[in-house]
Fold each of these.
Amino acid sequence: MKSFLFDMADVIIYGTGALWLITGVWSGIQILSNIGEASVGLISGILAILLGIMFSALHCLICFILVDIRRYTRHTAQKMSGR
């Protein structure tokens, strides 16, 4: 099971990143539609959309860095045990 999850890590990371993106854009659209044309509502909605995009990218970046560190560590450990 552990190996299966590690092999599917890319799909899981992209899926959770997409959820972050959808949540950010959806909340931004809700803010824009509820407040209307008020400048505070416009700025808040646009910031919510941008933050959703930024959090999605940041989440994927951090997760892929952790996966790469784990793969490198596994590869190095396998090479060292072969000596």
Amino acid sequence: MNVIKYQSNLGRNISELLNKTFLVQKVEKQTRIINGVEREIMLLTCKVDKDVDVYYTFSNVLINQIQPFLKEINAGASLLVKLKKIKNYYTFDTPYEISIDEE
């Protein structure tokens, strides 16, 4: 029997950025059906050091924290955050910092 490892086409899991500070440059909200259940997902284009990649999260905590900044981010601003884990939950460490990306 062949076992095929499932690979997501969503990007990388945001948990890879645990305890790192990074810039969120773009945000896209989507709804996906996973195991027959409709779930909200957020795709974040993040700049870590000099690398830019897309990360995904299903975390309602992170989605709710990003929500107030959607307009600014999608208008070209970047949000500087640090990903923390408290108990079983991922959260962005506060304070947040919004900046206009000048490149």
Amino acid sequence: MSKVYLVETDNGEAYEDYFSSVVKAFTTYRAASEWLISEGYEPYYEMFHGEGRLRFYWEESDEYMSDCSFGKIIEMELEE
């Protein structure tokens, strides 16, 4: 079996305002994380239900509004 790493981003909103999509697929975790960083996302580490995970955060703001996005990498095994 081979693995694929999907990059999913969301708009940082909740409930009915929430939107997420898979934007890219990579063959290595490193390539996926490098792409997120090159797009301006900053990595951070969080604990979720006792398990640590790496997430990514992007924010742009000016004097009128702020826009943010979260990114994560999803590991999936492909059946051949």
Amino acid sequence: MGGISIVSTISGGIGGVMTQLLKTLIRLIFLSVLWLLVRFTQFVLELSELSWEACEVSNAELHLQVKIHRQLKALTPKFIKA
């Protein structure tokens, strides 16, 4: 009878190790997916920031073009009179 309890304890220990290994593997997969989600979010935020910077530059260029156009429009009659 003593031998049977040792075998069941060993098989129970192996099952416990497998359960612990499975839990660790699930945690590792979960943390990996979470890490990927964080990295993807950082990438999207950086891309959004670059897009806003490009938009600001484009708006600044447009503002300068409008300002130059207004100045030329204002100077044209003076230039024609001269």
